[in-house]
């Protein structure tokens, strides 16, 4: 099975900064990646699908990129409300494995 | 609007079977697929399985021997059954609408496995 590895495990960023987090697949998954945001006590929310397509209503400061095995979620000008866990997920072909997540804290 | 809501027992005894229901509204199960995802307390997300719009199913290989997903399209309900529960199955269980990804999620239901 394909393993999705996210890095870093956590990061602490100031409001207004740019943040980049990574997701690496153990095999080529083409562009078949989604990104989710999960705030404490809440259900995850879809941010990005097929690696770079922003889901409806997602602010344009969220950008996904990458293909093959290496993917990136970038948040430009981080806001306080972006504090959350972020997960990548392989899509299109099952199993739809999740990465272990990146915790984003705001200083 | 699209909604999903999980229901089921909050407490299950070890070795027993978990039965959960996902009741959906705002979309048809014959045109959309539903997946199940779980999250142990303080841990990450685990994809469990899915039932496709055509009625076939797909399971996480780690759970396949214990897991069954079915549906009643007339009631707009999807069912999860997992047997031989252990304490490590304690988690929040979510159902999601699956298109090209999980675009809508239920609120989740907490299931504790304990005697």
General description of the model:
The complex is a heterodimer of chains A (107) and B (115). Chain A has strands at 4-7, 10-13, 19-25, 33-38, 45-49, 53-54, 62-67, 70-75, 84-90, 102-106. Chain A has 107 residues and is mainly beta. Chain A has a six-stranded mixed β-sheet, with no helix packed on it. In chain A, strands 1-3-8-7 form a four-stranded antiparallel β-sheet, with no helix packed on it. Chain B is mostly beta strands and 115 residues long. Chain B is 0% helix and 52% strand. In chain B, strands 2, 4, 5, 6, 9, 10 and 11 form a seven-stranded mixed β-sheet that branches. In chain B, strand 5 and strand 6 (57-59) form a beta hairpin. The radius of gyration of chain B is 13 Å and the shape is globular. The A-B interface holds A 1, 34, 36, 38, 43-46, 49-50, 55, 85, 87, 89, 91-92, 94-101 and B 35, 37, 44-47, 50, 58, 60-61, 94, 100-103, 105-108.
> How much beta of chain B, percentage-wise?
over 45%
Strands of chain A, count? 10
Oligomer: heterodimer
Q: SSE order of chain B in H/E notation? A: EEEEEEEEEEE
| Unreliable spans of chain B | none
Summarize the structure.
Chain A is built from no helices and 10 strands. Chain A has strands at 4-7, 10-13, 19-25, 33-38, 45-49, 53-54, 62-67, 70-75, 84-90, 102-106.
What's the arrangement of secondary structure elements?
The complex is a heterodimer of chains A (107) and B (115).
Chain A: E1 4-7, E2 10-13, E3 19-25, E4 33-38, E5 45-49, E6 53-54, E7 62-67, E8 70-75, E9 84-90, E10 102-106
Parallel strand pairs in A: 2-10
Antiparallel strand pairs in A: 1-3, 3-8, 4-5, 4-9, 5-6, 7-8, 9-10
Chain B: E1 3-7, E2 11-12, E3 18-25, E4 33-39, E5 46-51, E6 57-59, E7 67-72, E8 77-82, E9 91-98, E10 102-105, E11 109-113
Parallel strand pairs in B: 2-11
Antiparallel strand pairs in B: 1-3, 3-8, 4-5, 4-9, 5-6, 7-8, 9-10, 9-11
